[in-house]
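Form 12-C: Joint structure prediction
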Amino acid sequence: MSGNDPLLAVDGLVKHFPVRGGVLQRQVATVRAVDGVSFEIGTGETLALVGESGCGKSTVGKTIMRFHPPTAGTVRFDGRDLATMKARELRAVRRDIQFVFQDPFASLPARMPVGDILAEPLEIHGVGDRRSRRARVVELLELVGLGADSVNRYPHEFSGGQRQRVGIARALALEPRLLILDEPVSALDVSIQAQVINLLARLQRQLGVAYLFIAHDLAVVQHLAHRVAVMYLGHIVEYGDAGTVFTRPAHPYTQALLSAVPVPDPRLRDLDRRILLSGDLPSPADPPAGCPFHTRCWKAEDRCREERPVLEIRTPGGAGTACHFAAEAELTSGPAGRTAS
Amino acid sequence: MSEPLLSIENLVTEFRVEGGTVPAVNGAGYQVMPGETVGVVGESGSGKSVTVASVLGLLPSSGRVVSGTARFAGRDLLAMRERELEQVRGRDIGLVFQDPMTALNPVMTIGEQIAESLRRHASISRRAAATKVAELLAEVGIPSPKERARQYPHQFSGGMRQRAMIAMAMANRPRLIIADEPTTALDVTIQAQILDLLRRVQREHDAALVMITHDLGVIAEMTERVVVMYAGRVVETADVDSIFHHPRHPYTRGLLRSLPRLGERRDELPAIGGQPPDPRRLPDGCAFRVRCDLSGGRAECGFQPALSEVAAGHVSACHFHGELAEEGVA
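Section 2 - Result
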């Protein structure tokens, strides 16, 4: 295996869900949740998948974890295709890829003390003996900034931020190489979000673990991501390093998305910079032909209604935009007061 | 100087729980002038939503207003019977909540619900109400308003439901709109639409707006004056520029410093330590002192600081607000 191989390579990933109806429960429609998505994540790096609800970002994460099987496409971890892997191999890989959920309360077993919650993955994978597992649990608690005295406490005794720390500690128990984090801070209070963001950044520096960071909050994403993929209706519409995507977005959707984020400074209350999109997200069960964004795009022309623009990713880490009329815009001087018609 | 439209003073509200009561609001108060936009910001447990629920008679049955006053246009809200309050809520004060699904009746069409609200507060014919409903829906940007009026809430998207709720809140031309986390459940491009709409209807109706939110970005973009709440109390109030650029309470300053902001990336966010206050176990004295980087364990913080005026129209509840006078946030 060459040192340049990405840790995770997702290629042409498709996940469709059947919609059944009628007395015979026949398939009446297909929700095209993920419709051909490709990206790579290198060792110790963070790729953020961003987009609004229904864009398919969470489905990507769950499909990689094989919470449900992909409809098409490949997911390669460390150069090996997860789809063709034998059960034993897959089990080993599962140690390397762990998941952190949005709601730390719902994802932790309520009736188990935290010590047992953290020891459980070690037991399942037969790591160490009772004594070394106990030591590892204490080490994990310290790693995420919780005291060793947390061992005997139950999830309900912790605040939301502390529970998310427990969730992260559990995900780290088996020393994974990739964490898939699905909106890990969006349920937390503002003052606690910063703590958990700092924790995630520190853990990555310390452990060299890679993150697939799935989130809708762009300010949070910008803080942690090395690279960003912007999703819309099951497609990646823009991809590139975080600095470029956030300061000089080239896809109209990315521009609208970034311009819509309220700025916490009344002196920058400049409503003209906002690109107000009209209408709602189309249904992923009935996506528009051509470019998925054309129904809300102020740049759309006939070509966009007929021909889907292709996202070309040139080199790993290279930028790409799926738009016939892509043009970089400086965020601060973005299309002033433009409203999509 | 005109009289405040809404004035809340020394409000204390508690909830009954197993084995006792838990304080949710501990002497909070603020004022809203006619036509003014006031932001109320705070985290979970700050009491920002319970405060308005208390004065509008919308507390769950386990909640109880212990003391305090609340006046709307000179009338005592806390002395009103439920029927009077109902009149005030639908007619003089329009309400917009985070989740329209809980506020809208799922088995009534959108049009019927808005018409009902119109007819409850004014004697107009069925036909006139139907016309008015279509006008209102058009005003809040719902396409094909006549057809959409015949649909049920579940047939609306989240953004469209919030538009319908705003139409209902505006139906009787209220003098005050109270919006409690109105865009928290929405995606950011839809949030931008709804904030734009709220601004527009407020201006057109010349109504005051109380915007309750945890989102400092929304506060900065929407409001003129800001009330910061922590642990059931108001800890700071000022015009929006002073709050964001010259905060005089360490909690406000800490929140602003800890925010990740678009366009700037820092190695480490200066986070506020500790956890949000647990109302069952509030520390004695200043509730923020256990997380405060200004207190340094000084003895004064063991006593509850009073709200004191630190500049014209700017009050802070911190013994050491003077130490923040020369600093900005950035």
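Section 3 - Comments
The CA atoms of residues 53 and 216 of chain A lie 8 Å apart. Residues 333-341 of chain A have pLDDT under 50 and may be disordered.
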